[in-house]
Design goal:
This is Endonuclease V. The chain is α+β, with helices and mostly antiparallel strands and about 100 residues long. The chain contains four helices and three strands. A three-stranded antiparallel sheet has the order 1-2-3.
Length: about 100
């Protein structure tokens, strides 16, 4: 059992991940779009966040993804979302769309 878990995901899963990664890459915004980004003092910025995705040790399929949002500049906790999946990595990331539902700190 442990031997099977350490193997790479099936080619079909890898292909799916590659396609989804290419789609996400095409949506990357590589320039400042908000006024607060162009201001050295970041005035108007209200929240900052970070995302981490980690595979379960010894398992190349199951992963845990987390999102944390903090207020800015206070850096007080606003929201944490975590999801562990059992089939494919991209499905673990879908709950992150809820960040838009945050209330003002």
């Amino acid at each position: 059992m442990a031997q099977e878990a350490a193997e790479w995901p099936p080619e079909e899963t890898l292909s799916l991940w590659k396609r989804e990664q290419a789609q996400l890459k095409a949506r990357v915004v590589d320039r400042d779009t908000e006024a607060c980004q162009r201001d050295p003092a970041f005035s108007g910025l209200r929240r900052v966040g970070g995302v981490d995705v980690s595979f379960v040790k010894g398992d190349s399929v199951r992963a845990c993804a987390s999102l944390v949002v903090l207020s800015y500049p206070e850096l007080e906790f606003c929201l944490q979302v975590a999801k562990q999946n059992g089939s494919s990595l991209p499905s673990a990331c879908q709950p992150f769309r809820c960040w838009k539902q945050l209330r003002a700190p």
